[in-house]
Specification:
The radius of gyration is 20 Å and the shape is globular. By secondary structure, the protein is an all-alpha fold. Helix 2 runs parallel beside helix 18, helix 3 crosses helix 5 and helix 6 packs antiparallel against helix 7. It is 69% helix and 0% strand.
Length: 374
Amino acid sequence: MISFVNEWKEDGNFRKAIFLFIAVKIILLLVAASSQLIPAEFTQRQERDGNVFINPWAQYDAAAYVDIAMNGYNAAFAEGRGNYGWFPLYPLMIRALGFMGYYFAGFLISNALSLLAVAVMYLVIKKDFTGDVALKAVALMSLFPTSYFFNAVYTESLFLLETAAFFWFSRKGNHFYAGVAGFMAALTRMQGSLLFLPSLYVNAKKGGNVLYSLLIPLGFAAMLAYQYAVTGDAFAQFSTHVGFAREVSLPFMSIYNGVAALISNAQIGDVPGTFYNGFNLFILAFFGWLLVKSYGKIPNEQFIFFAASLLLPLLSSRLEAISRFYLVIFPAFAVMALQQKGEGTAIKIMYAVFIVLMLLFTIRHGNEELPLFG
């Protein structure tokens, strides 16, 4: 808390970063609320919350998190496919504030934690580079096409906070607190367990206690134990993902399937499908390029996390939602900020397109698909 207060007083870039993030957040809130004026027959949105500012953020996976918060893990969700594929920490937080209304609680948690997450992210990047780089990184993340997920009843805000906190504590030599942050991240989403790798590296290199690293897989083990207690199957989440067409596969299969879908969509004149698959492939290639550029420029522990986080979504048979998964790899945005010196013009042109996509994606998300977007 003292660090935040001091930074707020002394660092103009820190204030700019937070104000910029809030400004984008407000714009997206207004865009999403306005999109609810689209007649329901032209959309597939679910009327899950009567508040026009909340309902756009209560679509898609938000229903799973709220169902877990209200009913625990159960097989009835999604026409019998179950809600076991979603991790428990975020729903438990929603349940704790459920007296306020479950969707409102999730909306409040996500928006509050996103501000804290961006603040910690700024401090980590500033510590590694400069305040200018940190400001640019926050700006680039704020304007990324899927940044609207920081408003939604999803885990992006919580997960970004946990990973940024992990690297902040690691940087400060507080390895136990870094392990606790990793433990919580592993209870939030699959990607959280990847923090075990940079944790091992940091503790081995800097003389920390490697036992603290074990807190991270312990978080994943706690999740498995929780699901076993409820279902009798510790790996229920994996069979649930199969029901949602997200089975585990070799990395090249997701790329192959993405290319095949792109070609198939183009041949039949499916413009939304062609764009969607092309966009996913572009994001994969772009972040792959950033990973190459990051070598030797970011701390090794962050490079390890970046590489592992890039690979994990490829173990699914589809590239679906890859731009959301990559949104929370904050070292990628630090690298992007550093690259503005060499490839600044190209990145600015790309981000002009990204900003338009961010607004369109926000409208689409708030309405669970539109004919224009597929």
